[in-house]
Amino acid sequence: MSKAVDCTNKTDGVYERSCRSYTRCTEGEAEVVNCGIDEAFNTKTDICENKWIVEPPCGTYRDCADSKDGSYPDLETQCRSFYTCLSGVFFGHTLCPAGLVFHKELSVCDYVDNVHPPCGNNITALKGKL
């Protein structure tokens, strides 16, 4: 996260989150909180915690040893997140914004109607592949 959320007129709470950081609004002020080296953002508690106790998608390690470089949908979260592999190394998870799923072909989070199964419901995207 490079830019803080505008917390003006927002109630206190967490407004922007990724697996490694989040933005917390308190009394109209934004604070970007970066998780520690062995921590991940816990979507249930809205804080950074030890990565071994955080549930998927942020606390789950993926084996990238045999994977090509790129981003992959996390099927365990119904594609509401994705993980990145580079040179056989796992580079972590990224959460999609609410209501979006990972579109592998475009490497972006997109509306479910624009993405083919198993992440979306756009079967017309599959017609040429059947």
Automatic annotation (TrEMBL):
Which stretch is the leader sequence?
A: none
Per UniProt, residues of the Chitin-binding type-2 domain are 4-60, 61-121
> What Gene Ontology cellular component terms go with this record?
extracellular region
Cite the SMART domains for this sequence: ChtBD2 (SM00494)
Q: Which InterPro entries match?
A: Chitin-bd_dom, Chitin-bd_dom_sf, Chitin_bind-dev_reg
Cite the Pfam families for this sequence: CBM_14
A GO molecular-function annotation: chitin binding
Keywords, comma-separated and alphabetical: Chitin-binding, Disulfide bond, Glycoprotein, Repeat, Signal
Return the protein name: Chitin-binding type-2 domain-containing protein
- Taxonomy-wise, where does this protein's organism fall, top ranks first? Eukaryota, Metazoa, Spiralia, Lophotrochozoa, Mollusca
